[in-house]
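re: the backbone from monday

yeah here it is again, tokenized this time
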């Protein structure tokens, strides 16, 4: 399956038989310690509340029509070009669908404050256009929340507009603090060991700090899954009555979030 950025956070689950997939969701704290017990005392029983989520993959597709005149007159392989264009649009759509379930499944949401620490140790507020920007303290608060749930924060997702203000933070813009990577290459690689995903698929004004499921114990606990019923399929149909060729692309999939504690949503950020 194609992807831009966000889909990589979801392990793929191939649905071979049937039209639905059922997953188990665990409730309760994952960081609760086990108490000491005395000799000869009955061992306490632990019960983890579980719930179930049933997911039905949905179908998405698009068709482009290429006329014979396009094929004859243009100096590009028109059919192949239309297939590539459809594939890019499908990848963009998949990332948007993944972001929609991330937003719906977030364990906590809070408005951004823009608070950050300056190079001289003075706290300041980053913002503009009537709203706060994504500040250093917003990122650290989200990071600490995920860590309190025994997950390791791995990714930050933001729109290019919100990334613009992150570039202005002193710890990322000053050569003395960050080195040459961002001042010369213009790339935000990682922030506090979290990979930064800047994508227009994420709407401006909202950002996410996410754990893909990594945790200190090394247990397998993915944030969610990307269920695939039909991989991306392309097809061509010759329409003689229109003297053209229809280029089609279809797929059936559905992303699902199972660990909402691995997602922090930060809202109320700049939109321009």
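seq for it, each position gets an aa:
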């Amino acid at each position: 399956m194609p992807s831009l950025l966000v889909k990589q956070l979801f392990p793929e689950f191939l649905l071979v038989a049937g039209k639905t997939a059922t997953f188990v969701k665990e409730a309760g704290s994952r960081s609760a310690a086990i108490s000491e017990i005395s000799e000869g005392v009955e061992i306490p029983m632990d019960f983890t509340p579980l719930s179930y989520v049933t997911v039905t993959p949905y179908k998405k597709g698009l068709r482009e029509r290429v006329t014979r005149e396009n094929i004859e007159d243009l100096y590009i392989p028109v059919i192949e070009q239309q297939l590539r264009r459809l594939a890019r649009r499908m990848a963009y759509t998949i990332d948007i669908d993944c972001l929609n379930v991330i937003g719906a499944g977030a364990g906590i949401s809070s408005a951004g404050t823009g608070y950050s620490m300056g190079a001289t140790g003075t706290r300041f507020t980053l913002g503009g256009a009537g709203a706060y920007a994504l500040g250093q303290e917003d990122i650290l608060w989200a990071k600490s929340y995920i860590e309190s749930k025994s997950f390791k924060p791995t990714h930050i997702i933001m729109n290019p507009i919100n990334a613009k203000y992150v570039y202005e933070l002193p710890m990322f813009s000053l050569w003395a603090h960050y080195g040459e990577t961002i001042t010369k290459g213009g790339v935000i690689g990682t922030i506090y060991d979290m990979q930064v995903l800047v994508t227009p698929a994420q709407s401006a004004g909202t950002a996410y700090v996410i754990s893909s499921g990594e945790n200190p114990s090394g247990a397998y606990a993915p944030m969610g899954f990307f269920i695939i019923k039909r991989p991306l399929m392309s097809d061509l149909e010759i329409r003689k009555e229109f003297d053209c060729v229809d280029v089609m692309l279809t797929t059936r999939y559905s992303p699902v979030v199972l660990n909402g504690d691995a997602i922090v949503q930060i809202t109320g950020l700049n939109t321009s």
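The chain is about 25% helix and 35% strand. Residues 6-267 form a domain with the phage-related protein like fold fold (CATH 3.90.1690.10).
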